[in-house]
Task: inverse folding
């Protein structure tokens, strides 16, 4: 080891106390106080008398020889002297009996304190070796990371290796839009960063691996971190490709299986035979199609390619609800809750919570069908869920509506196509041209919903009845009569077509 | 100046004796108060005279007990021991004693010489050889001045009497094994000399100072007045005060020549947030504040219980108690190089420089 007067190494090449703990000799020591681990260690001094600490330079790792095993007072005296000399850390033999108060003192001084079992001299030697050649120690770290990357199969696991193994570094995998796919989002905002592009399965840039480095910066350390990030690229790309292929494959199998189940149920119904669960897909996918179900349907407002969004939606779904299948179906995704006592309200609440928690790549809202039995019932429930989901598309993302809650209004939602909206605008043009046109349309819809009762409409809209009466007067003044039976259905439809647009 | 110590002075003498016992050796010395009062009630008061007022050739000797105060409390001295000691010493020295002085005016040894003077009808010299408690009988200023400890006359609880003529350290060793065998304690007479030689060999005014400190303590609080009083009487300064956060056996591997067990304790200073670690080996030996040595033997360290405003010690304290840590400077002779060698941190097995010692 170097003596107190030995030449200090260039700061750029120095290891920190944290590094010596993570992959150096201090990993074997008990850490009694872990403050200020980012200090760089310039040299190591094995001292056999307290006064020798007075001759140590700043950044020294002070190791007390076993001859100084004189009690807690000796450790505290050494702490004080080491602190006065700006030492990087203090290592003491455990037999010297440092106590809780000793650790408390070390924390107050922000001086890392370690206790080692047995003779402290070999620890001092190992420390000196590590401090003398930081490159060797860092190469060992990179090798260890590479080994762990190979053992992890998920993106999260691979980024996690960097966060747990590389001292003073927080890492995150970030999508081009800034969305953090895995790791610690704090890394993105940090001042000192190392960034490495990660190619997707198609070879094009897919995301970026960002590592934030805390503490004193050094070129060689940054190079080590960059090397470790590069080592993570290939395993990340492989893992992403595997996850996507698996997701698409699984989703397609699911779609085929669901279609087969429904076809089997339809056939059984046509033959008026007792319903039978189809044989092929069920055991493979582990689904239950007998018993009681409540189907749900997820969809997104924007016109999109379901197949392209499927891997993202499925992985987000599996994070929130890992036990339930999600199958691409028509213009969205289908799933179902099964169980003897499952109720629509429960399912709607659970789906609402899941949507709030999920981070899908596209905005999602959901519809819930009625409870039904068997494969045939599931098909029916899913059809209802599809209709209910149609209504939610006009509302905020994350909305969940059940078929029962909407009643026949699901019909209206299904009809509100662009043609109908355009016709409604023409039909209600006079009403819409009023300064408070949208308010009048909403009031008209409420009055029609309430069968012409202005007091009920007032309480639904949350206004005074006189306000509703006044608005109805203005509606009539614009040539719209809500009381004419032959006009009522058309008016009601027009209002419903327009309401989501307003 | 000539003074007297009578029955009425005993409570102050006891309180002062406890103060100078540096918080550990004072455990369980209360028995000696009524014991001394009883003797003084029979003999009348004892004359307390400065060494300089005695004819220089007055033969005198130091009186003190050694061993366990707990054993003394269980089997107290009968009161006849000084007579046996005086006879032994007269036999060895060829002359009858003309005065007695304390080995150390602290703990029970502040009271025993008073009893001896009373029983023998001799004046008590207002001085001592330690100014505090040290664990070994030859850790004295008498020794530093070159007085001979032996012949050492001892008498045990069972009235076994022995006269040892040997070197100081060896006398200590032999007497200690005898104390073990003879009931836990011994009353000793030693450092036979003449009053004139005490001028450079003793710490003068010790007994009066013990009485003065004792009177301050007996007068009681409030705390700040008490601390001011102790500063005036003994030069005590407060190192810090707060809660005991840790107390227990110390794993220190040192000082095997000393009786008793090492104990460590930590006081969390409420004012500054500093952690004051105290190491005790019978007596409090040193104090570190945040790892820096702030006080050490031969200076005294004492603990004042904030709740009772009485001196307290490691055996009476538990984690959570509130105490003030006081430092009392030792007599200047103890800060000399030979003084520190005999009674400094090094003598207790601590490889530390005394805080008052210049960098060597």
Result:
């Amino acid at each position: 080891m170097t003596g107190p007067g030995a030449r200090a190494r260039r700061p750029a090449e120095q290891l920190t106390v944290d590094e010596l703990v993570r992959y150096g000799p201090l990993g074997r020591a008990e850490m009694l106080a872990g403050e200020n681990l980012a200090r760089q260690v310039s040299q190591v001094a094995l001292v056999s008398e307290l006064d020798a600490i007075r001759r140590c330079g700043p950044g020294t790792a002070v190791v007390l020889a076993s001859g100084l095993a004189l009690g807690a007072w000796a450790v505290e005296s050494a702490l004080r002297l080491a602190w006065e000399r700006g030492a990087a850390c203090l290592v003491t033999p455990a037999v010297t009996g440092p106590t809780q108060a000793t650790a408390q003192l070390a924390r107050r001084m922000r001086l890392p304190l370690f206790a080692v079992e047995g003779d402290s001299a070999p620890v001092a030697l190992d420390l000196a070796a590590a401090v003398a050649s930081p490159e060797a120690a860092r190469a060992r770290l990179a090798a260890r990371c590479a080994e762990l990357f190979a053992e992890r199969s998920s993106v999260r696991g691979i980024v996690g290796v960097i966060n747990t193994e590389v001292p003073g570094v927080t890492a995150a995998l970030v999508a081009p839009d800034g969305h953090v796919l895995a790791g610690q989002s704090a890394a993105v905002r940090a001042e000192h960063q190392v960034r490495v592009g990660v190619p997707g399965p198609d070879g094009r840039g897919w995301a970026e691996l960002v590592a934030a480095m805390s503490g004193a910066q050094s070129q060689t350390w940054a190079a080590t971190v960059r090397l470790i990030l590069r080592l993570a690229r290939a395993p990340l790309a492989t893992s992403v490709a595997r996850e996507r292929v698996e997701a698409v494959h699984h989703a397609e199998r699911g779609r085929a299986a669901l279609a087969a189940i429904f076809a089997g149920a339809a056939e059984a119904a046509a033959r008026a035979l007792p319903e039978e669960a189809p044989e092929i897909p069920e055991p493979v996918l582990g689904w239950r199609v007998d018993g009681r179900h409540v189907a749900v349907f997820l969809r997104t407002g924007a016109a999109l390619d379901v197949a392209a969004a499927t891997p993202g939606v499925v992985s987000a779904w599996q994070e929130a609800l890992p036990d339930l299948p999600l199958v691409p179906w028509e213009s969205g995704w289908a799933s179902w809750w099964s169980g003897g006592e499952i109720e629509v309200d429960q399912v709607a609440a659970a789906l609402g919570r899941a949507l709030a928690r999920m981070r899908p790549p596209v905005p999602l809202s959901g519809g819930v069908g009625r409870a039904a039995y068997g494969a045939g019932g599931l098909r029916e429930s899913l059809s209802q869920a599809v209709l209910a989901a149609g209504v939610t598309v006009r509302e905020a993302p994350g909305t969940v509506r059940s078929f029962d809650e909407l009643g026949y209004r699901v019909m209206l939602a299904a009809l509100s196509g662009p043609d109908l909206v355009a016709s409604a605008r023409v039909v209600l043009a006079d009403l819409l041209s009023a300064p408070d046109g949208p308010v009048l349309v909403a009031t008209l819809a409420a009055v029609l919903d309430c069968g012409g009762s202005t007091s009920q409409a007032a309480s639904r809209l949350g206004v005074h009845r006189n306000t509703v009466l006044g608005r109805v007067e203005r509606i009539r003044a614009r040539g719209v009569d809500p009381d004419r039976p032959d006009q009522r259905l058309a008016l009601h439809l027009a209002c419903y077509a327009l309401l989501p647009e307003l | 100046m000539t003074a007297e110590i009578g029955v009425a002075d005993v409570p102050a003498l006891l309180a002062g004796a406890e103060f100078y016992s540096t918080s550990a050796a004072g455990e369980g010395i209360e028995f000696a108060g009524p014991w001394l009062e009883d003797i003084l009630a029979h003999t009348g008061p004892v004359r307390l005279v400065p060494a300089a007022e005695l004819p220089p050739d007055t033969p005198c000797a130091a009186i003190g007990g050694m061993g366990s105060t707990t054993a003394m409390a269980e089997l107290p001295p009968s009161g006849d021991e000084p007579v046996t000691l005086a006879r032994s010493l007269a036999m060895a020295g060829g002359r009858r004693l003309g005065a007695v002085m304390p080995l150390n005016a602290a703990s029970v040894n502040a009271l025993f010489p008073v009893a001896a003077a009373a029983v023998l009808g001799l004046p008590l010299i207002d001085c001592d050889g330690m100014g505090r408690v040290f664990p070994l009988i030859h850790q004295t200023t008498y020794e530093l001045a070159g007085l001979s400890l032996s012949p050492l006359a001892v008498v045990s609880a069972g009235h076994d009497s022995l006269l040892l003529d040997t070197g100081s350290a060896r006398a200590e060793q032999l007497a200690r094994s005898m104390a073990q065998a003879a009931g836990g304690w011994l009353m000793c007479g030693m450092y036979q000399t003449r009053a004139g030689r005490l001028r450079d060999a003793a710490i003068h005014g010790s007994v009066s100072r013990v009485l003065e400190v004792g009177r301050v303590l007996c007068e009681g609080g409030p705390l700040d007045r008490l601390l001011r009083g102790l500063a005036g009487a003994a030069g005590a300064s407060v190192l810090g005060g707060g809660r005991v956060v840790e107390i227990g056996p110390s794993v220190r591997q040192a000082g095997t020549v000393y009786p008793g067990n090492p104990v460590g304790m930590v006081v969390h200073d409420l004012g500054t947030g500093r952690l004051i670690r105290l190491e005790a080996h019978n007596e409090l030996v040193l104090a570190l504040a945040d790892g820096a040595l702030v006080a050490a033997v031969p200076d005294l360290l004492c603990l004042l219980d904030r709740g009772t405003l009485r001196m307290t010690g490691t055996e009476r304290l538990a984690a959570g108690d509130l105490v003030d840590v006081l430092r009392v400077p030792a007599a200047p002779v103890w800060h000399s190089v030979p003084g520190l060698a005999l009674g400094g941190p090094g003598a207790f097995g601590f490889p530390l420089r005394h805080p008052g010692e210049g960098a060597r």
